[in-house]
Write a structure and sequence with these properties.
Distance between the termini: 43 Å
Shape: globular
Helix content: 25-40%
Largest sheet: 7 strands, mixed
Radius of gyration: 21 Å
Number of helices: 15
Number of strands: 15
Strand order of the largest sheet: 4-10-9-8-7-5-6
Structural class: alpha/beta
């Protein structure tokens, strides 16, 4: 929507007017766990349930309207990531969609195949592949970057030694939900594809709320993220390129033939109609066309760079704080998901002291990246302190949090 930009910059008052939840006293800095929802998406759900809550495919009037609204949602989801509608499927979560994808691979990988899995990912993009490797007795290789706090990036260089002629799948995150560092997925995809027949599966959950996703430019075979992290309801989308779908066996009913779309192959009737119907509103929020959306995403990145810079400047100034991931504020290197530990203090203690003094909502834990937190970062059950910002957060809010942290940490 053009109304959230003024001279190429975000109009924060206009932005925040689209999110009813922001009228509360609570200040949301746990956005990586789930963003607040656009009012147009909320209204869309209500309208669908009030007026078009019928089974799809019927020829009567309301049935036609319901089907049209659902199809418009699918098309908007495809447009959001520059894919064809036949290359996407909507499901309840990224975790579930990856599980469906893994199940569809069960019979297509040869017995001597190798699967390379990133150890710094959310478990959604690990457990399904580890389970597949165990069931099929495949070789599972772990892709782990340097364990230095500021040098935890996946690169083509640290992937290359793991690749072989037996590699069939490589999985990784576009941006870790703990580290916030952005990986160069295009270069990684090119490296993966040097192994004949190898495919790349990317978790984009922590990236999609902050940057435009163009799956064709990225060169990925599979890519997924959750709409409830991108200002919508609790559903997710999975992309599979047309060429990669040749390896995807259909999980659908036998009479759904030919299985010529990803939705038929992996959908399993799990896409809630009223929630899919919200996606056009999400797309429209960022702009009426592709050019306008690029301008909006550029403005979001600039604003978020300022927000993360304020927090990082404070944290980096302290000898008792370790920031994990990229320590630079530069928008080219990271998104505003900032995790840290404080020497001599538990992560839970830090968060609960912030809770007691303010309305700032931050979190402690491993955030389903348990292998990263415990095995790579070397943390215990309390994990890290995480502050996750998005574009509707303000400079005043993050400066306020810094002052509370200054008081808490002494």
């Amino acid at each position: 929507m053009a109304d959230i930009l003024v001279d190429g910059n975000l109009d924060l008052d206009a932005v925040r007017s689209h999110f009813p939840a922001l009228k509360q006293n609570q200040i949301f800095f746990d956005n990586a766990g789930g963003s607040q929802v656009l009012s147009d998406a909320i209204n869309s759900i209500r309208t669908y349930l009030e007026k078009t809550n019928v089974q799809l495919g019927a020829s009567y009037n309301v049935g036609q309207k319901a089907t049209q609204k659902y199809n418009q949602g699918l098309q908007a989801a495809a447009d959001f990531i520059n894919a064809h509608v036949s290359e996407i499927v909507i499901g309840p979560s990224t975790t579930q969609l990856f599980a469906n994808l893994a199940q569809s691979f069960a019979l297509s990988f040869p017995a001597d195949a190798e699967v390379i899995v990133s150890s710094i990912d959310h478990e959604a993009n690990i457990s399904s592949w580890a389970r597949l490797a165990k069931i099929r007795n495949l070789t599972l290789k772990w892709w782990t970057p340097s364990s230095k706090p500021g040098d935890l990036k996946l690169t083509p260089e640290n992937l290359r030694p793991l690749l072989s002629e037996k590699t069939k799948l490589v999985t990784c995150t576009h941006t870790s939900n703990i580290l916030g560092s952005i990986h160069d997925i295009r270069r990684i995809a090119d490296e993966v594809h040097t192994a004949p027949g190898a495919m790349l599966c990317v978790d984009g959950v922590a990236y999609a709320p902050h940057r435009e996703v163009d799956v064709k430019s990225l060169g990925v075979d599979f890519y997924s993220f959750s709409w409830y992290k991108v200002y919508g309801p609790h559903i997710a989308v999975l992309y599979a390129s047309s060429s990669a779908q040749a390896s995807v066996e259909s999980l659908g009913h036998y009479f759904h033939a030919p299985a010529d779309t990803l939705a038929i192959k992996l959908g399993l009737a799990a896409a809630s109609y009223e929630l899919v119907g919200t996606i056009p509103a999400l797309l429209s929020y960022f702009g009426p066309d592709a050019s306008a959306r690029k301008e909006t995403w550029a403005a979001i990145a600039a604003h978020e760079e300022n927000l993360q810079g304020i927090l990082l400047d404070f944290l980096n100034s302290r000898d008792d704080v370790t920031v994990f991931g990229e320590r630079d504020r530069d928008r080219a290197f990271r998104v505003p998901v900032v995790s840290f530990r404080v020497e001599g203090r538990g992560s839970r203690e830090v968060v609960e002291r912030v809770d007691a003094r303010s309305d700032f909502g931050i979190r402690w834990g491993h955030f389903y990246s348990k292998r990263l937190v415990e095995e790579v970062l070397g943390g215990g059950e309390e994990g890290v302190v995480r502050v996750s910002m998005v574009h509707y957060n303000t400079e005043q809010e993050i400066k306020g949090l810094v002052e509370v942290l200054r008081e808490v940490l002494g």
